Amino acid sequence: MDVRAGTPVDGLDAHLVVERGAFRLDVALSVAPGEVVALLGPNGAGKTTALRALAGLTPLTGGRLRLDGSALDGTPPESRPVGVVFQDYLLFPHLTALDNVAFGPRCQGASKAEARAQAAEWLARLGLAAHAGARPRRLSGGQAQRVALARALATRPRLLLLDEPLAALDARTRLEVRAQLRRHLAEFEAVAVLVTHDPLDAMVLADRLVVVEHGRVVQEGEPSDIARHPRTDYIAQLVGLNLYRGEADGHSVRLDAGPPITTTEVLTGPVFVAFPPSAVTLYRDRPTGASARNLWHCEVAGLETHGDQIRADLTGELPLAADLTTVAAAELDLHPGARVWATVKATQTHAYPV
């Protein structure tokens, strides 16, 4: 069943309204069992507030919260079928990995032996059987993350919440654990909601993205669709695109602010136009033989290393970002204040309706 076509009987059906001073969160979420949804957005967007509201740690001031057809609005956090993996994992430092995982089943009424047996099973599933007797301080970051996940899953939750689950890991460990977490989430049969500001975590781990800015949903859809069709500057920056809005008339788009852009698409009416920084070619003198249909006079506002390339921040006729090699940047003698000509071929732009 496509949850976006209607409200699912099973799964999550939520309209989260939380007012805190001048900030208002107003986010609707429908998630089917077996689906992983990522709440993605900048700091202060309301992602963590939404997660805390789902967990029952922050009360709703309006809306609704239903899980598998049952209202959770008035249910205390400890009575909800919800598992949470916090950003800092929050493992009990005085307990072994086994007893950390057994804590949930014990709270649900299982005997000590039953809880430990369940915990051992979960640790084995996550490849941690050999670390059952270790306390958190003896675990690596990746191992601690998996213990926290096992502890959340051991209660057999109908809703799994993950708050920046990879943020505490170094880059190398993050790569490995991200792949492991994706595999475990794919096997999870209930609802999973992930909160992150990292686009790669969201793209890899989630089936669907819900982008939140200023407490509201600004775009949602499959990761590939959002990457191809960003609808705000924040999303465009996340996926590494120059993004503009304007009025299309055939192959030409007249921007709301700036010169027209020539595209290959034939459209009419309000559109977005996007192209990657790698599509931009820079010249110190106005090019005479270039085949690109788009040509703008710009000024270098700043330069920074971006992976193995140099990213130039340009202002002038059209503000944009351009990527080039360090050799090309040196040959062009680029520096803040340098005047350049920027070209982009129409075939490297992408226009789509607003």
Automatic annotation (TrEMBL):
GO biological process, one term: molybdate ion transport
Annotated TM spans: none
SMART domains with a match to the protein in the record: AAA
Keyword Cell membrane found: yes
Pfam family, one: ABC_tran
ABC transporter domain residues: 9-239
CDD domains linked to this entry: ABC_Carb_Solutes_like (cd03259)
Top-level taxon in the UniProt lineage: Bacteria
EC number: 7.6.2.9
GO cellular-component term (any): membrane
UniProt keywords, alphabetically: ATP-binding, Cell membrane, Ion transport, Iron, Iron transport, Membrane, Molybdenum, Nucleotide-binding, Transport
Name of this chain's protein: ABC-type quaternary amine transporter
Residue ranges occupied by any Mop domain in the UniProt entry: 289-353
GO molecular function, one term: ATP hydrolysis activity
The UniProt record lists the keyword ATP-binding: yes
Enzyme class label: translocase
